[in-house]
Amino acid sequence: MSRHYPIKYLTNKEIDQQKWDRCIAGAKNGVIYGYSYYLNQMAIHWDGLVFGDYDAVMPLTWNKKYGIAYLYQPFLAAQLGVFGNDLSSDLLRSFFDAVPSRFRHWDIYLNHHNLLPVENYPLYIRKNFVLPLNQSYEQLYNAYRENTQRNIKKSKQFGCRAIKDIEADRVIELAVAQMRHYTKESTDNIERFKMLYDQLHQRKQAICYGILSAKDILIASCIFFFSHNRAYYILVGNHPDGRTLGASHALIDAFIQDHAGRDLLLDFEGSDVRNLAFFYSSFGAVEENYSALRLNRLPFYLRWAKKE
User: Fold this and answer.
1) Is 110 inside any structural domain?
2) CA–CA gap between residue 22 and residue 113 (Å, rounded)
3) Are residues 237 and 295 in the same domain?
4) What is the pLDDT, as a whole number, of residue 302?
5) 95 near 51, Cβ under 8 Å?
6) pLDDT at 66
7) pLDDT tens for each residue of 249-308
8) pLDDT, tens digit, 9 for 90 and up, residues 106-142
9) Which residue in 31, 48, 57 sits closest to 234, CA to CA?
C-alpha cells in the first residue's frame, strides 16, 4: 500500500533559508542549483515544498504568462526536484501532489536521485555526463579517446596555452555570442548569472579557465562552479577559430590536469545533443541520468495555443 507524506507549501517569504540550505548541503543528491542563494539569483520567482523540519525540500521555480502561473527551469539550473535522504516513489508523489493547483503547466528537470516510478506522473529521462577525478592525471589522460588526445596535442603544436582566473566578463561575452546562433538569451538572465558568479567567486566556489591562441586571442573558455564535491561545467564560451585548434579539448584537459587525484566529480551538465554527448564521453565521462517532468493542466484553448 502506498504511503502519503504530509508536505507543506511555503511561499518564498515563509521559507527558512538557513534550514533550506542545510537540507541541500546534507542531501545525498544535493547540487549547487538547489541552494537558496542560487535560486534567489537565477529564478524569476521561487517558493518551496517542505517535508518535516526541512528533511526534504523541493523548490518551485515559477513565472506567469497571460495571467497563468507555471513551473519552469531557470537559466543555468540543470537539475532541481526533490532533495533529501531516503527518497522513495511515495515521497516524490506526495511532493508532486502538494504542488498548488494554480501552477497549470510544468516543464521542469528533477535530479539523478529522482529516477523513480511515480504514479500519475510520467517522468522522462535526460542525459548527463560526469567524470570522477580521483585518479592520477596519467590514468585519466589514458582513458581519453585517441581523437581527444590528438586534439590536445594539436592545440599545443599551434602554440595555444591554458590560463585560469581570467575575467568572467570575457567568458560571458563569448558565451552570449555563441548562444545567438541557437537561441536569444535574455539580458536579464545574463545579468542574474553575473551577480551569481560574483557571489560564488567571493566564496571561492567559482573559477574561469581559458585557452589563448598563439596571438593571445581567447578561443575557448569556461566558468566552473564548485559544491558537493562536484565541479560544474556551467557556462562555456568558444570562439569559432578554436574549433580547428582543439581548444575545447585543451581547456577541459587543463582543468582535469589541475584537479586530478581529488575527490571531485566533473559534471558536464548534459547532454541530450548527440555531438555534445560524444564530446563529453571522449574524456572518459560516464552517463549519470536524471529525470524530468512535463505536465499540462491548461484550459483546452490554451493547450491548443501552446502547440502552435
Assistant:
1) yes
2) 18
3) no
4) 58
5) yes
6) 84
7) 999 999 999 999 999 999 998 777 888 999 999 999 999 999 999 999 876 555 544 444
8) 999 999 999 999 999 999 999 999 999 999 999 999 9
9) 31
Count of beta carbons in the 10 Å neighbourhood of residue 79: 25
- Structural domain includes residue 2: no
Cell of 141: 589522460
Between CA 283 and CA 252 the distance in angstroms is 9
154 and 102 within one domain: no
Using DSSP bridges, classify how beta strands 230-238 and 265-267 pair: parallel, antiparallel or unpaired: parallel
Asked whether residue 296 falls in the same domain as residue 247, the answer is no
Q: Which three cell numbers stand for residue 198?
A: 560574483
Write the DSSP symbol of residue 118.
B
For the segment 94-101, the average pLDDT, to the nearest whole number, is: 97
Domain that holds residue 73: 7-127+290-307
* Model confidence pLDDT, tens digit, residues 59-91: 999 999 888 999 999 999 999 999 999 999 999
Question: Would 1 be classed as within a structural domain?
Answer: no
Q: Hunting for cell 593571445 — which residue is that?
A: 216
d(CA 124, CA 122): 7
Query: Which CATH number goes with the domain that contains 61?
Result: 3.40.630.30
pLDDT for 258: 98
**DSSP H or E run through 250:** helix 247-259
Q: What single string gives the DSSP state of each residue in 201-218?
A: HHTT-EEEEEEE-TT--E
Element (H, E) at 171: helix 168-179
The H or E element spanning position 137 is: helix 137-142
Task: Tell me if 43 sits within 8 A of 33, measured CB to CB.
Answer: no
Distance CA 95, CA 58 (A): 7
The tally of domains found in the chain comes to: 2
Q: Which grid coordinates are listed for 50?
A: 517542505
Lookup result for grid cell 542531501 = 27
| Whole-angstrom distance, CA of residue 248 vs CA of residue 242 | 7
Spatial distance between the Cα atoms of 28 and 216, rounded to a whole number of angstroms: 43
Is residue 272 assigned to a domain? yes
